[in-house]
What we know:
By secondary structure, the protein is an alpha/beta fold. It folds into 2 domains: about 1-120, no CATH class; about 120-274, Rossmann fold (3-Layer(aba) Sandwich). Helix content is about 35%, strand content about 20%. The protein is built from 8 helices and 11 strands. β2 (about 35-40) and β3 form a beta hairpin.
Amino acid sequence: MEEEDALDRALKLAQMPAIWITVQQAQGSVPRGEGTVMAVFEDEFLGTIGGGHLEFEAIADARRYLQGSAIGQVLPLEKRFALGPSLGQCCGGALVLKFERVTISDEHRLQAVLAAQALKRFQPVALFGGGHVGKALVKVLAPLPFHVRWVDSRDEIFPSDVAPQVVCEHSNPVHAAVPDLVPNSRVLIMSFSHAEDLDVVAACLQRQREHKDLPYIGLIGSATKWATFKRRLAERGFSEAELQQVTCPIGVPGIEGKEPEVIAVAVAAQLLQA
């Protein structure tokens, strides 16, 4: 993950300089977008700008700059790479890469760059429920571009070895956490109790009335469960248009397995589409 790469870069920079490569411009079909970074050291590299021959050439250039063997090249500099036949790639786009020499004195600046990238790249997810599916989902989301706020009314339910981008929160009642969610959170509701699920859905719909800042509200369960919930939510005053903001069942269609890990993969795929 990005946080681990950032730590590795800092530790390496304390020992030896590196060339920091940034995708400055991206045109057309390209493997990675603007702002993507990697660090190239004499003996290894951290991160990726997309792999393939493009990355091979960029690493070779970076090591020439490190060794001082690139005559007439003064850093920082920018270089354009067309992703065509000359690179053995057929993406059809082009990238402008910036090469700069960095040392441990640049650490704070680079950490700020990485933090800003993480805010843009990682989407907030609010996961209500620490049961079997919740635990499987947290593991599936770990390598994906999400920051997860994991909420349950049972404090003892959370494992001790969660990924760095997962924050565990005990909230009782559990729906009390909804008003404080980060704007644009994708919400997943899968608590141990249908009563809790209903209260969380109602709190999300109330927030939507006030702020309209939850792009995805997903409720685990069958069509039968959702029919019951719709009736009870209508009794609480929510309109049909408001109820249409809830996705239930959750997960991309066509995946039939009921195992927690299978459900988790289907739900993660749907989150990436949301």
